[in-house]
Amino acid sequence: MIEVRDLTKHYGGHEAVKGLTFEVPRGQICGFLGPNGAGKSTTLRMLTGFLAPTRGSISIGGIDALEQPLEARKALGYMPEACPLYPEMRVGEYLRYRAALKGLPSSEVSGRVEASLKQASVDDVAHRIIGQLSKGYRQRVGLADALVADPPLLVLDEPTAGLDPNQIRQVRELITELSKNKTVLLSTHILPEVEALCDRVLIIHEGKLVSEGEPTTLRGQMAGRQVIQLEGRGAEAAFQAALDGLEGVRLVDAIRVVSGTGDAQVVRARLESDDPDAAERVFAAVAAAGLALRELRRREASLEDVFTDLTTTDEAAEDAPAEDEPKTDERDEEE
Questions:
Q1: I need a labelling partner for 98 at 20 to 30 A (CA). Which of 112, 117, 147, 188 fits?
Q2: If you average pLDDT over residues 260-287, what whole number do you get?
Q3: By the 8 A CB rule, do 21 and 6 touch?
């Protein structure tokens, strides 16, 4: 459904996306992951036709998105993270306007608007003014907009942001239901959501694709690796010194102070090791340093651990347009 080849984007002297090549087959839910500044938003804007690439090709449902951008847009529904809605319009009025922009025949508009209102669970606010809705409701209006033309491809950027737990569950169920006859590209920071929903995962870092595959396959890359979580009481520097000397044990995150000061600090740390006895060595090192251990547990590596392992380098530059490349207003698309 999506074919990307050598996709590259420069903002002045900064290369935000560096030769991405990947495919998303029909009928799959594909997770699109990366830390802040990795190039996710830039990539999504290029895929959906709101930003021209510096180099590369994009095919949407067999349509060349660079040669036939309007035809390619008709094949997809895009929900950006910050939905650019018209706050002065009523929900139903806005969706009818969007349906007309997307080129739906007038005879189909009412039926598609009603269907998208129900699918996104905003039919109860169809007559409300958008600017008076909560953030969660506005987010779901954006989802209804993505659905109103019934496209075969959905590109969803943080679709559960701002929703309460019940609404998150409803959106997840909707995505699962929609995937029966649609392809979904899902960008999110909620890794358990990816594990629960996605058939495949793409992970990018500093503009490059660093891994792809099924969640179980990616977890298998860390087979045998132990993740150790620690909580203790004592000075942060003392814990750092005790753990730094352990061969074959790596701190995944910086030691974090939860509360307290000085020797009464409560700290937490996450470590990794391929040694099945690493937890015993961590315990011995902490005890030998005279530090109090409140909790020590180990578990198998998760998708979050794979993500952290692949993307723990220096923070990438912010994934935002440079001054010489102004950001496109995604609601003002021309059909």
A1: 188
A2: 89
A3: yes
The rounded distance, in Å, linking the Cα atoms of 273 and 263 is: 27
Q: How many CA atoms lie within 13 A of 38 on its CB side?
A: 23
Rounded to the nearest 5 degrees, what angle is found at the Cα of 272, between the Cα atoms of 270 and 275? 140
Q: Is 305 exposed, middle or buried (0-12, 13-18, 19+ CB in 10 A)?
A: buried
In angstroms, rounded to a whole number, what is the distance separating the alpha carbons of residues 230 and 269?
5
CATH H superfamily, domain 2-220:
P-loop containing nucleotide triphosphate hydrolases (3.40.50.300)
Contact between 131 and 87 under an 8 Å Cβ cutoff? The reply is: yes
Alpha helix segments (H runs only) across 27-90: 40-47, 69-74
Give the C-alpha separation, 84 to 87, whole Å.
Answer: 9
Cβ proximity of 185 and 156 under 8 Å = yes
Q: What is the layout of strands, in order, in the sheet containing 183-187?
A: 76-79, 153-157, 183-187, 29-33, 200-205, 208-213
Q: Domain ranges in the chain?
A: 2-220, 226-300
Mean pLDDT of the chain: 87
pLDDT at 326 over 50: no
SS3 (DSSP) at 4: strand
- Paired sense of beta strands 200-205 and 208-213, if any: antiparallel
Report pLDDT digits (tens) over 91-122.
999 999 999 999 999 999 999 999 999 988 89
Residues 6+ apart with CB under 8 A from 255: 236, 239, 240, 243, 267, 268, 269
Q: Report whether 232 contacts 291 (CB < 8 A).
A: yes
The letter for the amino acid at 252 is V
Q: Six-digit token pair at 189?
A: 């920071």
CATH architecture of the domain formed by 226-300: 2-Layer Sandwich (3.30)
Q: What is the DSSP string of 222-264?
A: TTT-EEEEEEEES-HHHHHHHHHT-TTEEESS--EEEE--GGG
Q: Which residue has the tokens 């087959």?
A: 25
What is the tens place of the pLDDT at every residue in 49-74? 999 999 999 999 999 999 999 999 99
